[in-house]
From TrEMBL:
GO terms for cellular component: cytosol. Belongs to the LysR transcriptional regulatory family. One of its GO terms (molecular function) is DNA binding. The gene is cynR_26. Keywords: DNA-binding, Transcription, Transcription regulation. Residues 1-58 form the HTH lysR-type domain. It comes from bioreactor metagenome. Gene3D superfamilies: 3.40.190.290, Winged helix-like DNA-binding domain superfamily/Winged helix DNA-binding domain (1.10.10.10). This is HTH-type transcriptional regulator CynR.
Length: 300
């Protein structure tokens, strides 16, 4: 049984679509189809129902998927443990990071981490915290740098990097820029731009304002887009102070009712933690002690 065929099978189950699965793993559709057929021939039973060009798992397929996930996870743990036995020249760690955090976290990892650990290469993926948790649980990421409240994610182990709060970001020349605090009533009257669903940012803010619906005019994943819109007073947003660089013509106003966030590094629970992973976890604990001010110092 081919380990790659099991990975392809899991991707097909994720999307319920062979074409989307082939795009996700960058393998041709005929190859995915052949791999599934080979699995079914080897097992002696059908994994999918096929009706009118649509597929769904059979009962046997549902049972096999659970076993396949356990096996692939076990294999990935074995692979990491095996690499730790010898002196592998280069190790790649896949790290997910939300766009709203990436702007000020990226510089904390590059180039200093790789200078300290030249045999470890970080491969960064821009992804929202909620979507990233799913990718992490599926083994597509080694780590997720994510924001969370005081509720822990049961499928993950985590280590706190720093605590911070959200603030209202407005154009520097906006009349709101002179306000000492931003109330819910004030904010909900403004055109609002927000990071998309799938991010902790979106979840935390919409939950906070569920009794005072926001006037959301746009969802945007690019910090440059949000910066342009806020600077030009087309809309306001709620985010971290460090989301924008020092050149941004943006003023941050503390929220009258704070939204707290814990920025943490997360990894899959019960996964083998390799030496490279241990080095990365240890490095994250030094970030808040760097010479730059802590994120939360703005609010102290």
């Amino acid at each position: 049984m081919n380990i790659n065929h099991l990975r392809y099978f899991q991707e097909v189950c994720k999307y319920n679509n062979i074409t989307k699965a082939s795009e996700a793993v960058h393998v041709s559709q005929p190859s995915i189809t052949a791999a599934i057929k080979e699995l079914e021939n080897e097992l002696g039973y059908q994994l999918f129902n096929r009706v009118n060009n649509r597929i769904s798992l059979t009962n046997d397929g549902i049972s096999f998927l659970a076993k396949a996930k356990n096996f692939v996870n076990a294999y990935d743990n074995f692979h990491k443990e095996a690499l730790d036995i010898g002196d592998k020249t280069h190790v790649v760690l896949k790290v997910g990071i939300p766009p709203v955090l990436g702007t000020f976290m990226f510089k904390k990892f590059f180039p200093s981490f790789e200078k300290q650990h030249p045999n470890i290469r970080l491969q960064m993926f821009e992804i929202g915290t909620i979507s990233g948790l799913k990718r992490l649980s599926e083994g597509g990421l080694d780590f997720l740098i994510g924001a969370m409240d005081d509720t822990a994610y049961p499928q993950c182990d985590s280590r706190l990097i720093f605590r911070t709060k959200f603030g209202l970001a407005v154009g520097a020349h906006s009349p709101l820029a002179r306000e000492p605090f931003a109330s819910k009533d004030m904010i909900c009257r403004q055109p609002f731009i927000i990071f998309p669903k799938g991010s902790y940012h979106y979840t935390a803010i919409t939950e906070h304002f569920k009794e005072h619906p926001l006037n959301i005019i746009m969802e945007a994943s690019q910090i440059s887009t949000i910066k342009y819109i806020v600077e030009n007073n087309f809309a306001v947003t709620i985010t971290y102070q460090e989301s924008f660089d020092a050149t941004a013509k943006i003023t941050h106003i503390p929220l009258e009712e704070p939204i707290n966030a814990n920025v943490s590094v997360l990894w899959r629970k019960n996964a083998y933690v390799s030496n490279a992973m241990k080095a990365f976890i240890a490095y994250t604990s030094t970030i808040e002690n760097e010479s730059e001010p802590k994120v939360e110092s703005f609010w102290d």
